[in-house]
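Progress narrative, work stream C.
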Amino acid sequence: MEPLLVKHIVERAAICFPRREIVARSAGEGRFAYTYAEFYQRLQRAAHVLDRLGAGRGETVGVLGWNTHRHLEIDYATICKGSIYLGLNFRLDVDALVYTCNLAQVRVLAVDPELLPLAEQVVAAGANTVRAFLLLGDRPAPATTLAPLFDYETELATAPAEYAFPDDVDENATVCVSFTGGTTGRPKGCPYSNRFLVLRALTRQSAQSLGPYRGDDVLLIIPPMFHAHAFNLPMDGMIAGAKLVLPGVHPDGHAVARLVADEGVTRLMANPVLGKLVLAAAAERDHDLSSLRYVGFGGDIVPRDMAQRFLAMGVKLRCGGHGMAESLADHTAAFYDELAGADPDAAFTRMLDGNCGLPIVGAQVRVVREDGAPVAADGVETGEIQLKGWHVIGEYFRDAANTEALFTEGGWLRTGDVGVRFADASIAFVGRTKDMIKSGGEWIPALTLEHALSEHPSVAEVCVIGVPHPTFGERPLALVTARPGQVIDPAALREHLAGHLPRWMLPDCLPVDDIAKTTVGKFNKALLREQYRGYHAA
């Protein structure tokens, strides 16, 4: 039986859709466009370049870069030739980047010009396995301490035009690694094989996941390609022959709205914060978003007013799901129309209650008590969400300690997420185990408070943390930022909550200008808990 290999999807795209476009926005270069056929030609040359620089089969190529066509070429050339692709999270601190580089034993490090200073810091701090550096740009290399440094375009121009991507690659061998954000300790590496990546890409063609994709789709790749969700998205589009759009450096709301309008983007996947920025930018500068057919959100709750604005455009709205790097992003998916049924208000209620929808094909999801028994399917009893399946990793990358600690004897992954389950097989995310607040002997889910506060018209962002209290042990504290033109009134917010929740659960509400976030854009609750631990001491 033929192995499942990513190269078959990439080669097929070049053969079946040779004229389909890939568009990239690069710093200093403006709009760059080429075809699938031209992409595949450069991909083969890139594979020769990586071989020449010392990254053979089974060895690691790291990329410190934004979503550009050069990054895309390195990504798929590495995987197709049987090496290991590692997208480095440039938002991690230097020590974490040193750890991930050395654990993965990066042999070739490809770097965007803008990120050269960061690469220099990482090498100076102890990243010691790199044999060669590759500059991904179109301009002469600036002065740098990195050596030996090679120019990607120069190397590409002298590389052979054809590459025989191997057929004898073990489909179960690691060809890609994504590291977690590292907010609870060192980042954990999630290894993916050819088989894993191909099955995930095929699964995502389903309407129950990210699909169905169409040949006339235009897919904008917003999440950075170091993110577990993002480096697989281009392959989703390649299967259908969709046009791919890469946003380049620092994509903000205005840049994304302009790309949607200019390129006729039909599929947009982002976090809710960026969704708000895109809508605001479109209104401010009259960008046309009417080409959108599918909008998918993840990472946080989707505010009702934002959901309503996208729904008014006639889009299919994916309003959430439960996902993590260990399952290459999603393993459940929630869609507005499925949550609504005959009652549109029911969809918003279930969205705000954290409903994550149904497990997608290949995912086994359970919610269990501490003794491993399933919780009642009543939407009330809470337990830990655990995962298993052919698109959930079975171990962490070169990390026996975390593998032993976080996988059960039966192979279930302990996510550390608290949830409930329902009779219709859907689940809802209640919060992280470490984010539950125990106050006066009672548990308060931070997410429940965040959902309710996000419905107030003055609130832009809200993060609820537990802080020490001399009487109750812990009390909830809500950090709240205001929408433009609005002012946060803590008393009004508490009154708003009183209409939804019992009084003993109500938090103090503290207006702030900004809320600290992690490297992947989530609230950095560990940092915030430390920052505000003395809140009740005064």
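Work stream C, second folded protein:
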Amino acid sequence: MNDLELRFRHRVPVRFRDIDLGGHAHHSVALMYFEEARAAYWRDVVGRPRLEDIDYILAEATVRYRQRVLYPDLLDVGVGVVRLGKKHFEMAYEVRSSSGEVLVTGRSIQVMYDYAAGRSMRMPDEMRARIQAFEGAGLEGPDADGAGAS
């Protein structure tokens, strides 16, 4: 994942509550760092700032722990869309310490979801265009949704 250029950056402080008995961030906290960065991306890049504007569900997430996340620190979380399907998108994440060390990397697959209808939906063209304008070309890939919702 280090070969990816994740252009969107979001700062997240390591909170005291993040730390477990081992003196480092609990393993579950990495997903919260990803989520905070993903929400900021959705707000700033996709242009959907409100909670009601989140029209996807998380289908899959992977996390790779490379170094310990320690308190106190101000993390730099890189996030970007790396693949677009008809009804889903894949994001990559890289969490760096304030000194620049890569601490955690990961990926997630989100499926576009119509909460009122209770089913997956196609990604709106306007949303796809915003993501492609920010990320550049080359995001289209095989449309095999990890959640079986193609």
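Confidence is low (pLDDT under 50) at residues 144-150. No further action is required on this item.
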